[in-house]
Please model this.
Amino acid sequence: MTLLSPDQLEQALWASTELLREQVDLYDYKNHVFGLFVLKRLHDVFVERVQALVAAEGMSRKRADGVVQEQYGIYPQTARWPGLQERKKGIGEALDKAVAAVEEHQPALAGVLSVAQYQGHKRLSDEVLHPLMNHIGALKLGDADLEAPSRLGEVCEGLVRRYAAESGKRGGAFSTPGPVSQLLLRLAEPLPGHSLYDPSCGAAGTLLDAWRMLGGQPDGGAALFGQEKLPATWAMAKLCAYFHGVDMSLELGDTLVEPRHLSPEGLLPRFDRIVAQLPFTVKNWWTPLEAEAAEPPPADGKKRRRKRPAEPNYKKLVDEHQRFGYGIPPRSFGDYAFVQHVLATLKEDGRAALVMPHDVLFRDGDEGRIRNGLLFGSQGQSGDRIEAVIALPPALFYGSGMPTCVVVLNKNKPAGLRNKVIIVDASKEYGRGRVQNTLRQEDIEHILRAYRAAVDEETEEPDYLRLVGLREIKQGHRGNLNVQRYFAQDEAAEVVDAEALATELAALTEQEQALDARLAAFFSEEEGWRAEEGELEGCLALTDEKLELLSSQYAAERKLRPSRIQALLNRGYGTRRMGKWSPHQSFKPSALGVIPGNWEVCKLGELAAPLAAAAEGELLEATVGGSWRRAGAGLGTALPPNAFAYDPARLYQGALARHVGEAPALAAADQQAFALDEARISPAFLECYRQSEGWRFCLERLGAAVEGVEFGFEALAEMPLPVPPMSEQRKLVEEWARQDEALLALQQRLLQWQARRDALVARFPAED
Model:
């Protein structure tokens, strides 16, 4: 008899999802497949045990049935597979009863299988369920039929990874890539006997990696704890642990609002180590306040069209566990709420390693104040809590191109690290993938080797790792931990990794195409929404994922914009394009690198003259998308179309204001302004060039890209500029304008899908 290997079983179970693919969104129905697998496995093991008793003891099948139940627990008739598979009608109702009966007699599965309700789903009709059950029913899942029964946990984990990859961005919520889990665990360094906690454990992949790391014994080698907010994801975590035979405490609930791991006195426990991929930029994170702000039900009990709820005041937040001593994070960004929960549950000699969005390192406002408190102390709270920040490569996570980092927290740093932060730029070393990048083993080892050298010997590695004192972080960077600020920016480092961004964009495009195929069941351009009321939640989830993908594409395209501008400058206009060659027959070296032979490099002071100081007024500042808005108040001096104005103390932001269309820029009293010689350089060309990598690089070299540095026109006059012939300047501006139009079209798609989401919500008024 050929035994079924773990890989074959995983593939066979995955094939069952293909039966559902055209009928349902696999993300919403993955637990249904897991549930059927469990029911069939329980049946085959039970039958195997009964047959073994009949053969060995010569007892009747009925007697053997009773003995097996006495030894291993009751196996109710309503849950037995043959009766379920034989049904042609009412299959969903029968499965729900079977699941309830199993959970009643199997404490380890309580609440796990019933997460998936089979009855009442229009897309899970008898016609869909019957072939699915026949497929799973054909699998022989007894111990004697499997090559490695002890590896069923690996099969479950493999399915979880497949579902994560299939589900795009939503998949990242329940599965952390294995190499990232390995990095977190090796940074945290859990030891046998430690308690290890994951406050956003997903399908428990990182906790299971910790179990394997500590020897893979049934007791885990350490006390393992996790909490997960989503019931379906929590159920997958419980099943993975169940089939591995691992004893871990996995709780269901909102970690921020209702932490479930508490002492008998209701106090938060303290853990030796905490590792987590925290939810990325969670919004509306304190549900009690959100519920209070929701619209009250109408007195007459009638339906009302949804209204935009009042925005709750998070300053009124009351936490019975007093975790937010560093400050209350804003409603739109709950990242630092999780960080403070981690600190509140970490022992005084504990360490935590957390994956977070990279922008938590530099966002201002309330988050900036919390970050400064973690670094320097505040409001009676101790500082020096951040041991390290590590910039990770792009596109490591399922369905997300969001830049990420690892933040290491330590309440008791080694003496050599006190009042210092290890800052690592590991963003450039990774294995490229068509859809998703990965941390290779050599990349992980490089991080750990450099990290240990910093801890043990206080050594740095040029362009990779620095040990930065809190004084420098405070005085030189005002608490901003953006990793790129701490490394010398040479020309190569300034250029955006266009290849990596192109990989990310290709991945996002592929994910969007897959998502559009799933959306097609509910929406078409011709007919609009076809969703029924019971499908609202699933449609909203898909639409939100669409919006996230479009937002990520837009962000990536914007990030590529400076490098695309620079690419045109580097080659001159028109190298082989549309079958035509560039007119450039020669190139020459210059202060800006190699340029076409008929270009010049001139200093800004040779092309512009300063204007007289402006009267009190206001300045038009650049905003997202290259549009302009008024800043400040009062009357100001209008600039002529060939002039630019800027704030000498804020040139580090790269902002220049100029006449745009019919709207003149107005220079304020604290602004400086200059006018260009339009016979030599087009204002439109300079407006585009100032957004290039070359402009930013030269600002760095001149010392103007440092916050707080006053940079007057005399200094700015030294800025070198490429000066093509006027005809080429016009062509370059036209090409950049085409790129802007493509970016604007993407922005319009984003707005269009936001309107479609609003229309979907409006179709189904809330019932109060």
Notes: Residues 166-294+311-487 form a domain with the Rossmann fold fold (CATH 3.40.50.150).
